[in-house]
Automatic annotation (TrEMBL):
The lineage of its organism: Bacteria, Pseudomonadati, Acidobacteriota, Terriglobia, Terriglobales. GO terms for molecular function: carbohydrate binding; carboxypeptidase activity. This is Carboxypeptidase regulatory-like domain-containing protein. Residues 1-18 form the signal peptide. InterPro entries: Carb-bd-like_fold, Oar-like_b-barrel. Residues 253-321, 343-1014 form the TonB-dependent transporter Oar-like beta-barrel domain. It comes from Occallatibacter riparius. It comes from the Bacteria. Keywords: Carboxypeptidase, Hydrolase, Protease, Signal. The keyword Cell division does not apply. It holds the Pfam family OMP_b-brl_4. SUPFAM superfamilies: Porins, Starch-binding domain-like.
Length: 1236
């Protein structure tokens, strides 16, 4: 009988756990310690004044806040340990015969082993010595690099929008990001990128429950900062018990109740008018913005020393408006009438927790949280708006207990993410320009002006997770053995009906789309002297393009969440075992191994596609009915194993080892660690790659598009192309059917009239698509993806992982003042990279017959009998490309010639290695990146550190780093679909990614002045991010014609078939590093003098075949193109990030006479106090086709750098989506808080 891999793995895990538990239960002389995801621990060694081990010392660990107390005895190695413990303050009391009693005050933090090393002094037992370890201590027990954000820092430091992730930036190497940059479903969210990587894969846990979004990344709900006690951020070599991640991990812990009733209520207010924050000194530029936040929390005992509660809620009500600027000069009247787009945001979060000190020493806890938010996002700015709504309930509970001297920690969790994306313009009504209302049909205007319904809606995304986790420890003779594991059932589903709202394109850059006469008697902007109304996008212009969606949005054939399709299921399994060996009181060795697997994250449940599933019209020699069982994917790249069923990795073993050396008085520790850590694969990656791998019927997404220069519209599901439309919107044949308009006639109508007609076809298309039908995305169907692989998974899939190394030192300069210096290296391998294994467009794949036919067809169309004659008649390389003299992606959209019913010799001139199939874009484990950093952290927390200062805490973090990758996705490398810089040699080109901030400095301090205010300051200063410098894909021919097509002849310098190659002599991200300032001008001059006007490998292939000459290619524009020289003496520099926030609070303590702890605190916080301007990154090099308007407005690196305010205002960061406002203009916040 065949056993499934899952059942086999489950049996292995269960057996391993049983053996470990059975072994520990029979031990009689051991005690346990655990670090759970919800707490920390205390461990140490008891010695005499000479450092000799003391066995049998009596240790009592107690918490005054909850009445908790636990008695222990040091073992034969003088060692003791206890955990997991809730974060907080604890007292360690140590007694031994003949020695003075020692009482140590210490602090336990989440994920941290707090040192409990005690050196007893000889003396009578009646003498007690009391010391305080301080709130900031060195860590003598752990090998990794992590930082803890304390409750005091959360409560006192300025946090804009009470965004808990914002404060994580005080740790080195951490960058706050906008969630909307990930996906529309993350509108209103933030993320944190760690160590040069995008925040998609930063793992975030709350009370041991993973709250990470498994679909697109970051977290599932905005965590209420008032409910968080503290959190830890792991940056390198996390504990062996940690979750699956190769980047960073955040461990948050909710607050819990105590024996004293305590809580707070607060109100915060922001308004743009109160910040005196004009942009570039012009106060009128600031868009309206107002935020109201309010809430409260309370905790205390239900039964003293036994049962405690904590709970509360907060709400953010934000009214924001985004200025539209003047992105297109023709539509100024529209911008003047609707100068701003409303962007309201509402977010309500609540949290509740119970802690019970139960019988037999068992600690039980349960936590519930609920989040509801609604925000608006601009998928197509300025007026193409969607509304995002989320509802997220979550529950987690567990118990910590000891049996037979083994410590156990058990956690159960459940959460569900419910997301809806709707048409935002309908919600905003008349406050936004919406042309679909005037026409009475749903559509979105896009192109030179975006307005109307949003093509991203409607969408629904769901995620549910049921999880169980166990952590155990057993300590014996200086060995602290930890073991455990987890099992989670993760479900994802939903639909995304892209283009459900039909897109109708207006394009002002194409002069031929101007209407000679205005089609309205009362247009926006009026009618000019020529009878035109170019200020009205609906009646002054002809249509440029239509895109129609079928109204379906499933990306999977599996039903789920009440939908007929779109579901994905995965099991997450993990187990681990590790040993922390206290070799000596001053030396700790750590070793462990973690096994983990995520099932079915790359469509492993689907069998490989075979030739027997391919339509007969597409079959070819070797892949036909006689070879029905032959894997189709093998024809895209023989010898690569593409035709095998997608691999399901089961052997993801991640070992780790390290040491911590702390001699003498334990004032410093030298530590080092190394380990292998595996990454997960986002559901979104496999959902985008699934439909083409299965012929199953399901309501899958499909769309079709037609441009003004096309004669036929192909819609998935229609057997033949649509050549024209009747007045009722039915397909018809022009010249045959009486009531029939050809597409040429339709594209001669105004945008409004053409849209009304095509909308009728759009409605019929959606109605027809609602019926069950074959999957129009299947790679084997002629009316599907037709032998083109579009980012598909195949046999070689492997789980990404990182090799992490760290070495550093912690030194306690004095009590409460600690400095950390660490070197971190993180090499990430097997990153998903999209590679065209058929090498479409590569110079070596020239099909001479196809190239000759393309030339002949072009000569005929140009009315010439030779290439020289075509040049004389004004034809360019674009004309030749339109007939096939280019790569297969540009000419046939990546499909093979057979998909169009034509032989290969009439297809593309550069079709790829195998002309029987199209582009072979497969997701392969060939990506990699490397991160190297020096990280320095200085922490201080003291009472009365200086005269006149009651208390203070401060942290200074510095990060000096470099991060490189071979992925064009850069820091976003774990989001599938990105390719390499060289398709023929994916590892040959590596360079800096877009999140490579070489130097990052963060400052955070809060101090209370005697008889005065509490002052808090936070500053972030990041050096400029890099930019890539690429070759131009457009240009002007010697005869003055503009050429924008056939990029392989202009910018494919290495002949691999990809265009937009890097400038010679540069690597990715070189601008602002190896090249900056006037060096950019020299680079451009060198290109124009020595490289422009040259033949690329693709062009050389045509020359070698005798089809064309170098001189003819030059005259046609089929050579490398010129760049514009610098337009200013000093080129545009990529911007640095600079922010400085300040908060001033004045606690009013007179209320304490009514109740102890009753304090009313008014405060004023100024975000970006000095109103330092922060700009979006500039990028791109202007070529000879770039207009003057674009040069002045778009921020090209070689564009104008001396036009006051023009491009600067357009790229200035404003208030972000939701609470994200990194580097935004100055705002002032007024608040009032009551603590009791």
């Amino acid at each position: 009988m065949r056993v499934s891999p899952f059942l086999l793995a489950a049996r292995v895990v269960c057996t391993a756990f049983a053996l470990i538990l059975a072994t520990t239960f029979i031990q009689q002389s051991a005690h346990g310690q655990a670090i759970s995801m919800t707490g920390g621990s205390i461990q140490g060694t008891v010695t005499d004044p000479n450092g000799a081990i003391l066995q049998g010392a009596k240790i009592t660990i107690a918490s005054e806040e909850t009445g908790y107390s636990k008695a222990l005895t040091s073992d034969s190695a003088g060692f003791y340990s206890l955990g997991p413990l809730n974060p907080g303050r604890y007292t360690i009391t140590v007694d031994a015969p003949g020695f003075q009693q020692m009482v140590v005050k210490t602090t336990v933090s989440v994920g941290v082993v707090s040192s409990g090393n005690v050196k007893l002094q000889v003396g009578g037992s009646g003498v007690t010595i009391e010391v305080s370890a301080g709130d900031v201590q060195i860590n003598t027990e752990q090998i990794g690099v992590a930082g803890t954000v304390s409750q005091e820092q959360i409560d006192t430091l300025p946090i804009n929008g009470r965004n808990i992730l914002d404060i994580a930036q005080i740790q080195p190497g951490v960058v706050l990001q906008s969630g909307q940059s990930f996906d529309p479903t993350k509108t209103g969210y933030s993320a944190i990128g760690v160590n040069g990587q995008n925040g998609r894969t930063t793992r975030i846990l709350l009370d041991g429950q993973d709250i990470s979004d498994e679909t697109v990344g970051t977290l599932l709900f905005n965590v209420p900062s008032g409910g968080i006690g503290e959190f830890q951020l792991n940056r390198s070599t996390q504990d062996v018990s940690g979750e699956v991640t190769s980047t960073g991990q955040v461990l948050m812990v909710s607050k819990s109740g105590s024996n004293r009733f305590h809580g707070n209520a607060f109100y915060l207010f922001q308004d743009a008018r109160a910040g005196f924050a004009g942009i570039n000194g012009e106060s009128g530029d600031a868009a309206p913005f107002q935020r109201n936040q309010f809430g409260g929390y309370v905790g205390g005992p239900i039964l003293k020393d036994r049962l405690f509660f904590f709970g509360g809620a907060e709400r953010n009500k934000q009214m924001d408006q985004s200025p539209v600027g003047v992105p297109n000069e023709f539509f100024t009247d529209i911008y003047n009438r609707w100068p701003q787009v409303p962007d309201p945001f509402k977010d309500t979060t609540s949290i509740g927790r119970l802690d019970w000190a139960g019988p037999w020493g068992v600690h039980f806890f349960a936590r519930a949280a609920y989040s509801n938010n609604a925000g608006f996002g601009s998928g197509q700015p300025p007026y193409g708006v969607f509304q995002n709504q989320d509802n997220v309930p979550s529950l987690v509970g567990g118990a910590d207990f000891t049996t037979h001297n083994v410590t156990h920690s058990v956690r159960f969790g459940y959460l569900k993410f419910i997301n809806n994306i709707n048409n935002g313009t309908e919600q905003l009504g008349n406050s936004i320009y919406n042309p679909s209302t005037a026409l009475g049909v749903p559509f979105e205007l896009y192109g030179s002006l975006d307005a109307g319904g949003n093509y991203l809606s409607p969408q629904n995304t769901y995620q549910s997770s049921k999880s169980f986790r166990y952590d155990g420890t057993w300590t014996k003779g200086g060995h602290n053995i930890k073991f455990g594991g987890e099992i989670s059932r993760i479900l994802e589903g939903g639909f995304a009906a892209f283009f459900d709202t039909m897109l109708s394109r207006v394009e002002t850059s194409v002069s031929s789309t101007e209407l000679a006469q205005c089609a309205s008697s009362n247009p926006i902007g009026g009618i000019d002297g020529n009878g035109q109304c170019l200020g009205d996008p609906m009646y002054g212009w002809k249509n440029y393009e239509f895109i129609l969606g079928n109204g379906n949005g499933s990306f999977s054939e599996k039903p789920g969440f009440g939908l007929p399709g779109g579901a994905f299921q995965s099991w997450r399994l993990a187990s681990y075992v590790g040993d922390t060996w206290k070799v000596r009181p001053y030396l700790t060795l750590v070793a462990g191994v973690r096994w983990s697997v995520d099932t079915d994250r790359a469509n492993q449940d689907l069998p490989t596609v075979t030739c027997g599933q391919v339509d007969a019209d597409l079959q070819f020699d070797g892949c036909d009915s006689a070879h029905a069982s032959t894997p189709l994917f093998d024809f895209f790249g023989p010898g690569l194993g593409l035709g095998k069923r997608t691999n399901q990795p089961w052997a993801n073993l991640g070992p780790q080892a390290g040491f911590a050396f702390s001699p003498g008085a334990h004032k410093y520790v030298i530590r080092g660690g190394a380990g292998i850590f595996y990454e997960s694969n986002l559901f979104n990656n496999q959902s985008n790659a699934r439909a083409q791998n299965t012929p199953a019927e399901f309501p899958g997404f499909a769309d079709g598009a037609i441009h003004y220069y096309n004669q036929t519209l192909s819609l998935p599901g229609y057997a033949i192309g649509i050549q024209g439309l009747s007045s009722g919107g039915d397909p018809c044949t022009p010249g045959t059917d009486a009531d029939c308009k050809s597409w040429a006639n339709i594209f001669n109508m105004s945008v409004a009239d053409a849209t009304l007609l095509v909308s009728k076809l759009d409605a019929k298309y959606k109605t027809a698509s609602a019926k069950p039908q074959p999957n129009t995305s299947f790679i084997g169907f002629a009316n599907g993806d037709a032998l083109q692989a579009m980012s598909a998974y195949a046999g070689p899939y492997k789980t990404p992982y990182s090799i992490q190394l760290n070495a550093g030192v912690q030194y306690e300069l004095r009590q409460g003042l600690v400095v950390n210096v660490d070197y971190i290296h993180n090499a990430t391998l097997r990153v998903p990279l999209t590679v065209d294994t058929n090498h479409t467009g590569a110079a070596r794949t020239l099909n001479k017959a196809a190239a000759a036919n393309a030339i002949a067809a072009t000569l005929d169309a140009c009315g010439a009998d030779s290439i020289d004659g075509a040049i004389a008649n004004g034809c360019t390389i674009d004309d030749f490309a339109a007939n096939g003299l280019t790569d297969g992606n540009e000419y046939l959209g990546g499909y093979p010639a057979s998909a169009y019913g034509i032989p290969a010799e009439f297809g593309s001139a550069f079709p790829g290695t195998n002309t029987n199939v199209g582009a072979g874009n497969f997701i392969l484990p060939e990506g990699k990146s490397a991160y190297d950093a020096l990280q320095v952290v200085l922490q201080q927390q003291n009472q009365h550190p200086l005269p006149g200062i009651v208390s203070s805490n401060a942290q200074i973090s510095y990060n000096f780093s470099k991060v490189t990758t071979n992925s064009k996705g850069g820091s976003n490398q774990f989001f599938g679909g990105y390719g390499a810089w060289n398709n023929d040699c994916t590892s040959c080109i590596m360079g800096r990614n877009g999140q490579d901030y070489t130097q990052m400095l963060s400052l955070a301090t809060s101090f209370t002045v005697k008889y005065g205010p509490q002052i808090s300051l936070v500053g972030h200063f990041f050096s400029a991010a890099p930019s890539d410098l690429t070759t131009p894909t457009s240009g002007i021919t010697p005869t003055g014609g503009e050429t924008t097509a056939a990029g392989i002849f202009k910018s494919d310098l290495n002949g691999d078939g990809t265009t937009g190659d890097l400038m010679p002599g540069t690597d990715p991200g070189d601008y602002m590093h190896r090249i900056k300032g006037k060096g950019l001008g020299r680079l451009i001059d060198n290109w124009n003098s020595h490289y422009a006007g040259k033949v690329t490998p693709a062009g050389q292939a045509l020359i070698d075949a005798g089809l064309i000459t170098a001189d003819q290619l030059y005259k046609l524009g089929g050579v490398t193109q010129q760049l514009l020289p610098l337009q200013s003496k000093t080129p545009i520099q990529n911007p640095a990030t600079r922010t400085f926030d300040a908060a001033f609070r004045y606690p009013i303590g007179y209320l304490k006479r009514f109740r102890e702890g009753l304090v009313l605190t008014p405060s004023v916080t100024v975000y970006n106090a000095f109103n330092m301007a922060n700009y979006g990154a500039f990028s791109g090099l202007a070529d000879t086709t770039t207009s003057q308007d674009s040069l002045q407005a778009s921020g090209y690196l070689n564009g104008y750098n001396d036009i006051p305010h023009l491009y600067q205002n357009r790229t200035l960061r404003g208030t972000g989506n939701g609470t994200y406002d990194q580097g935004g203009p100055r705002t002032m916040e007024f608040s009032l808080r009551l603590d009791f």
